[in-house]
Structures are given as C-alpha cells and as structure tokens.
Write a structure and sequence with these properties.
alpha/beta; single chain; DNase_TatD-rel_CS; TIM Barrel; TatD-like; eight-stranded parallel sheet; 8 strands; 17% strand
C-alpha cells in the first residue's frame, strides 16, 4: 500500500518521525509520497525523506496558501529545485479560496506556471483544490486548449461525480481519497462508490484530514485502513 500524500515531515512528528514511519510500515504502508509546500519546510522534508531508508519519494511545489507577497521568490525556489531533478511529482499545487481571495490572481499564475513546468519535465502533478473548482477548471481549460499534456492526482477530492468526470477530460488524473470519506456531512463516500476503483489512490494528508475514529489524535499512515474499508 502507498500513502500517496503524507506530510509526515511536519512539526507534529518532529519528535517521533522514525517511530511514525515504522508504524506505517508495520501497518502495510510500503511507500509514502511527501508533497512540497514552500521553501520554509523544504529542508525538513528532505531530511526526513533521506532518513526513510528509501521508503519516501518527494514532490516539489508551491502550495496555494503559501502564495503571498513573496510568491515570485518562492516560485524561483521551486524552479531551482526542479533543475536538480529526482522528483516524483510537482506539488502540492493548485488553488485555495477557502480563507481568502486576496492572492487569487497570483495563485492562478503560480498554478499555471507549475503546470507548464510539469509538462516540460514529464512529471505528474498533485493538485490541491478548495472552494475553487471553477477557477481551477478555467486554468485547465486554457492549458488543454494550448495542447499542454496533464496527468497526476486531485488530492483530497471533495467534488461530485460530475466534477470527477470533468477532471478526467483533462488527462490521466487519479482521485486522492483520505479521511474526508469518513465524514458524515462531506457526502464523499457516496460519490466514491461511483468512481472506478482503478482511478482512486489512497492518502492520509497526515497530520491533517484525520478520519472520524481518530480525529482527536491526529492522522497517521496506518489509519488509512479505515477509509480503505470504507
């Protein structure tokens, strides 16, 4: 089993990263993918990956909620890291309008540029979308019209079956399913049943999006068994 989206390098695991990783392995998680956020966590992420004994692959990217007045500098950082090679994907990238629209224009520019880099590097993308599906689709429409190839994962999927079908028109995209599928008010469990199993990948988004039985403790890769059974 692969945890396709884990932030096990987060400060929440600073004191027990080796133990958390071993718990994951003991539960059957053979490999994890660490998505990037921004330059502030990059060093820690790489240190944890290096200490994983080959159990972790790493993505690089600028998360939409990290887009602020310093977005150009952060984007330059991503470009420089991409030139180093060795990445599993570009991500976590996308658009997030949940907290604020203040930097939405900058988010769109950052997202589009990283999608172009992914195509140039023949890398998949890890896409984060929160309260922004229409805006994301607008960006993808433009890329599709320009003939830009696209593939990857829509992380923490929260859309309808119609949303899923539209996503599939853009390229070879998988749907990332995690703890949200256990939330009664999310409505995702019913939608997931209509998505072909081969189009779904499992993720924890650890330490966030904790599944219902464990929300008070914080999520951990072994807990993926809860939504796999779901």
């Amino acid at each position: 089993m692969i945890d396709t989206h884990s932030h096990l390098y987060d400060e929440a695991f600073r004191n027990d990263f080796p133990q958390a990783l071993e718990r994951a392995v003991a539960a059957g998680v053979e490999h994890l993918i660490f998505p990037g956020i921004d330059s502030s966590v990059h060093e820690r992420m790489m240190e944890c990956a290096a200490a994983s004994g080959g159990r972790v692959s790493v993505a690089v990217g600028l998360h939409p909620t990290s887009v602020d007045d310093n977005w150009k500098r952060e984007l330059d950082f991503v470009e420089a890291r991409l030139a180093e090679g060795g990445w599993a994907a570009i991500g976590e990238i996308g658009l997030d309008r949940h907290w604020s629209d203040k930097y939405i224009r900058e988010q769109v520019e950052v997202f589009r540029q990283q999608m172009l880099w992914a195509a140039e590097a023949h890398l998949p993308v890890i896409i984060h979308v929160r309260d922004a599906h229409d805006t994301v689709f607008g960006v993808l429409d433009g890329l599709a019209e320009a003939g830009v190839p696209m593939r990857g994962v829509f992380h923490a999927f929260s859309g309808s079956i119609e949303t899923y079908r539209r996503i599939r028109t853009y390229g070879d995209f998988r749907i990332g399913i995690g703890g949200v599928v256990t939330y009664k008010n999310a409505g995702i469990a019913a939608t997931v049943r209509d998505i072909p199993l081969e189009q779904i990948v499992l993720e924890t988004d650890s330490p966030w999006l904790t599944p219902v039985p464990h929300r008070e403790r914080g999520t951990n890769p072994p807990i993926s068994g809860w939504w796999r059974r779901k």
